[in-house]
Write a structure and sequence with these properties.
With about 260 residues, this protein is of the alpha/beta class. Helix content is about 50%, strand content about 10%. The chain has helices at about 1-15, 20-30, 40-55, 70-80, 140-145, 155-165, 180-200, 215-230, 230-235, 240-250, and strands spanning about 55-60, 95-100, 105-110, 115-125, 125, 135. The strands form 2 sheets. The chain has a 4-stranded mixed β-sheet. It has a two-stranded antiparallel ribbon with strand order 3-4. β5 (about 125) and β6 form a beta hairpin. It is globular. The protein starts with a helix and ends in a 16-residue tail after the last helix. Bound molecules: zinc ion. The site of zinc ion (ZN) has 4 residues, from α6 and α8.
């Protein structure tokens, strides 16, 4: 397709553009994992950031003003998910809305078979398959960028949802190339999700955030956070889950993670 050809050419040119020194300084100052990446990954990442920033729109909400620091800090973390893969740069996503801290939403949640609870809840981020947008709290984004190994990262979480949507369904399964990969993925994820649910019900401490027990979609997003932020622990305690994520992302975060590990592990 002509359109596809032009899009690829435009992106190739964007990736090859010299990266702005001011942007690089912002990344070096605010995004801790960047320093740990091998040099060739850093170069690839900067290319993806150029495409991302050229294609996605940012909007400040609740009086928040979008600056280069905001754009670059979000783009750097989101583009970590794109390294080493031939991707379409989160195709369903057009706009990133940023609030200063947490933001409040009206939510109706089912607490029993016929019982619904309504109320205002605070959120750090959200996105949806048909939203075309992704919402983030700048406070949470900054915290995620400054601490790359606490297992929590709102940008990785929300953009993982965007990857989940790429195969047209919000089901915890990203676009996988072959039927074999889909089968292997589904086998591992089903059993890992069931154990997280069981642990959540019995109150056993877990490496994965028990928010992942909500449904397979959240399970995927929470696993992605752990994969990039606690890779040593995830590989040790959930080797099959780690292997599936490693094969999908074509990355081994153990190699560059800032995660503190004991001398014996
Ligand atoms: Zn989520």
């Amino acid at each position: 397709m002509v359109f596809e050809f032009l899009k690829r050419r435009r992106r190739r040119r964007l990736r090859a553009r010299p990266f702005l020194k001011e942007w690089l300084k912002l990344i070096q100052r605010h995004v801790v994992f960047f320093h740990k990446l091998p040099a060739f990954d850093r170069a690839e990442l900067l290319g993806h950031i150029q495409v991302f920033l050229a294609e996605k729109r940012f909007e400040g909400c609740g009086g928040f003003v979008i600056t280069d620091e905001v754009r670059v800090t979000i783009a750097t973390q989101a583009c970590l998910l794109l390294l080493h893969r031939d991707t379409d740069y989160f195709p369903g996503l057009l706009t990133i809305l940023v609030y200063p801290l947490t933001y409040m939403v009206e939510e109706k949640r089912q607490v029993g078979e016929h019982v619904w609870q309504e109320g205002t809840v605070s959120r750090l981020g959200e996105t949806g398959r048909r939203m075309g947008s992704l919402v983030l709290s700048w406070g949470a984004v900054k915290h995620g960028a400054a601490d790359p190994s606490d297992g929590k990262n709102v940008v990785l979480h929300e953009f993982a949802h965007q990857l989940d949507f790429e195969n047209q369904a919000a089901d915890g399964v990203p676009a996988l190339a072959t039927r074999e990969q889909q089968l292997a993925w589904s086998k591992v994820m089903t059993s890992e999700f069931a154990s997280l649910r069981a642990a959540d019900e019995t109150g056993i401490p877990t490496l994965l955030d028990t928010y992942g027990a909500t449904d397979p979609t959240e399970f995927f997003a929470v696993s992605v956070e752990a994969f990039f932020e606690r890779p040593h622990a995830l590989r040790a305690y959930h080797p099959k889950l780690y292997a599936e994520l490693q094969s999908y992302f074509q990355q081994d975060p153990v190699e560059y993670s800032a995660e503190q590990t004991s001398a014996t592990s």
